[in-house]
Protein 1
Amino acid sequence: MTIEVRYRFDLDTFQLDVNLELPGRGITSLFGPSGCGKTSLLRAIAGLDRHAAGYLRMGDLVWQDEDTFVPAHRRAVGYVFQEASLFEHLSVQGNLEYGLNRVPPSARSIPLERAIALLGIDPLLQRSPATLSGGERQRVAIARALAVSPRLLLMDEPLAAVDLERRQEILPWIETLHRELEIPIIHVSHSPEEVARLADHLVLMRAGRIAAAGDVHEIFTRLDLPLALDNEATSVIEATVSGHDEEYRLTRLDFDGGQFTIPRQPLAVGSPVRLRLAARDVSLTLQHQSGTSILNILPAAVEGISLDDEAQVTVRLLAGSVPILARITRKSAAELGLQPGMQVFAQAKSIALLH
Amino acid sequence: MFNEADLTALAITLKLAFVSTVVLLLLGTPLAWWLARTRWRYKFLLEAMIALPLVLPPTVLGFYLLLALGQNGPVGGLMTAMGGRPLAFTFTGLVIGSVVYSLPFVVQPLQDSFAAVGRRPLEVAATLRAGPVDRFFTVTVPLARAGFFSAAVLGFAHTLGEFGVVLMIGGNIPGETQVVSIAVYDHVESLQYAHAHWLSASLLLMSFLMLVAVYALNRRLRVVRA
């Protein structure tokens, strides 16, 4: 199943013009600076803006074309707004049941108990929304959207309205949804950290247009896109826990390009994990270094080097089939004589475990 | 205390206020809803028209209504042509006059509370499978309940206090169009101060209690919302 999205309509200062085919599973992130049209696109997909002209097909259902406009309340979407926007006149339970009661029992694929359990909001059911913290409100809003058993879940910067600490409180719940539910999620964000944690598929937007779309690992490391050229550039790597070293309190992670060793994690062998490797924490050597304190050294092939006039350049490497970025000085790149195709060793100073 | 005519006037006043309030809510709700949501650039013209009774002398309003509802007026003429009788000097005429006269007191609180509810809760309800009518009754009405309460009480209380409009279009027909405010006037004219006192005090008390309810409820709702 795929989701076909084509829209062209005027926004305040520019035109939104997109033509996308999105995967029917996993999390797709619409990523771009504020005001680039991400939210307008999400609202159009939900059917919240009647003037948004375009075409929308969700699997075999056409929700919008030249002659059809299925209004928002007849589209099987769940929508999580930037502010939780709970109904203040209803209890948490009342909020959850509002949507549930409007879905015929035969169409309920997510039981209410499951939505409640997935977001851990059982203790809040009798409370009034006014008494909840920002993080709790947003979790209730997500559960409320799930309770209508949507075929597509839309989330508009679900973390933007909560502070940093609360974000850490919500993110694991969104990751749980991703693991436990089959429904595709389209998520809007302007935070690279959030996208690195959540996205499987990434759509980069700029001034109403699609700058690039594709697999998150690929888009983060493409040298022709701004993400890879920034000092904050990172690579996102999927790995599996392969064992623990109890003597030195370390955990070994296997991935397609080799093995990483990180401080001991409370994870079972076989667990899938996602890692983030900051490009500026990766250095390159021509020979395998011995006599270094760095544990994680991977053989890799240079695939490309950014054409930068600045002090720093980004080198894209392939470790096995996995793209990895290194942010080094242009001078070092010249002295090492880096060329596409060269074999080098990538030394990773630190690796962050995302989940 | 009250004589029979006074009691009749009191009953007519309450009936007039009640019927007018119901008509005002039925008419004012869609009007206020439209005013709160439209982007029509000339809506201020309509808003100014609705607010006119706030500043016009009631006799001026009553005079034009009398012309419209009377035998030779457009509305009265139509009624006569259809085999009815003109609406001037009837209870129905009084209701029409009261509705026009109290419209701003109903439309403005409703319009303000619809605007305060905003679009977002309705969009949320739409994504939770609620259609437009469902959304209005399950989201807008409960969230704007303070506005409905204020509108109903102000419309009712303001109709109780009507004098000029009623005098112009209702005349002063005891048992049909004589309301309390006019009965008080008659008593004073004929120096029956005791009767005037009883009627005036009952109207004063009723109006005061209703306003107390409006202000107390508004305060309570504000506290809840904070």
Note: The longest helix of chain A spans residues 164-180.
Protein 2
Amino acid sequence: MNWPDFLALGFMRNAFATGTAVAIAGSLVGYFVVLRRQTFTAHALGNIGFAGAAGAQLVGFSPLGGLVVTTLAAAVWLTFVGARLSERDLGVGMLLMLALGLGVLFLNIYSANANAALGILFGSVLGIGERQMWVAIGVSVLVVVLLAILFRPLRIVTINEDFARAHGVPVELVTLAFMLTLALSIAVAVPVIGALLTFAIFVGPPAAAQAWTRRVGTGLALSVVLAVVQVWLGLLASYYVDYPATTWIAGLSFAVYLASRIGRPMGAAA
Amino acid sequence: MRPEDAEGAKPAIAVAGLAAGRGRMPAFRDVTFTVPPASLTVLVGPNGAGKTTLFEALLGLLRPQAGSVRILGRAPREARRYVGLVPQSARLAHEHQLAGREFVAAAFRARRLGLPLARRETALAVGEALAAVEAQDLADRRLGTLSGGQRRRLLFAQALVNRPEILLMDEPLAELDPAAQRTVVGLAARLRDRFGLTIVFSTHDVNPLIGIAERVLYLAGGRGVIGPIEEVVTGEVLTKLYGVPMEVFEARGRRFVVQDDAVMAAAPEEVAAAR
């Protein structure tokens, strides 16, 4: 096959495929994260996943497996403990603190893996192998399917929880299902963008989309477009200018955010 | 339609000997009433008298500790699709950036799984619901930019989008200025008169509904009394209900409930709190 220059190498093809899958799933989930004001939760899940990955490496398991298991467990915990909105940040922050404390212990015990840890914290999209690529694509497809199934109950629970509860929507079940979906998509996004930078995909593009459009369908579509373009441009830039892809993607995400705040229609503030 | 016209018609809501509450102690016991179709009933009482508990029982979210609830002749859980609730708007996020029509559309067949692919049907239902509360002009406005009265309109439209026969309104006058209160009461009356909806309307103050609501259900002291406002909001009835001497004064067509020289606008929790 005649690949364009930047796709000639296998690892670049893996990076594009994985980055695209993660950007699509992450920005769709992220649209609801932003609407539900759970951005801190999304951020924390990635970092809690870091501790899981470090711990898994320590005992000889796959870091990706550790990521998935810990983010899912944290999602269940956060759904049922400290779920009340007024205390949510407290509950999320304390769990995040505990996880990071354990994470640094795991690194301390097994210091040979400091580089791997850096890859989890800041992303290592160019180091993604073929197997990991297929896992990320598979999980992303699953995340999109789950979101499509959950869409209507999730939308009403997000927009008017009291209404949803009164009309027989199982609010707790929908919330748990969404948190697990979020955890899955975070787990596969962490190796791509980094545990510390999940905002670049999960928050930046959806927040800009919500500033630009007041319709749900258009907002979801715009979120995906922004996230995918960011990832592609970031990968291209890192190929031609040898800075980390994460840096480029984060920079682009910030630029989109800035543009959405400046170019906001009047009267849309608040 | 006045209650006397509806005699013999099948009641929209029939409650008999109801005791219900969240804890072990019921918020009220032995509450009995029927609500005829296409009528407007005000639900008043001090905080903690069980207004929300009663709504939960009508919605089938709470099992009665005693007695029975029938909605259009069915058990509440089976009548769910005929009942719409307008929840208190205080709990809505004020900064939502979505359009009014998205807020309403979100409620359309919201219990079903899968994507909302019936776009034309949804648009039709949303358009009807917005028109019923004269809120077409809010369809493309962002939620975060709306006034309290405008949000109340969208909450009404949201509750109407699945075409219910009974509408429960939880404190729709809270936090509104008198002009907006009049508009909301007028809307409720219009929904009853034009669309034949059966409405139960909870509030702290019956006065905005005098001359509009056929009946009042007054919950206090763990019990309830139902009847026309002029028969229920009286010193004699409220004294029995509260178990302490109560007086009701009338001035300019408004009623004021008085206990121990303290005046209240028809609901006494300010006084209860001050004690």
Note: Chain B touches chain A at residues 55, 59-61, 77, 80, 84-85, 87-88, 91-99, 102-103, 106-107, 109-116, 140, 142, 144-145, 155, 158-159, 162 (CB under 8 Å).
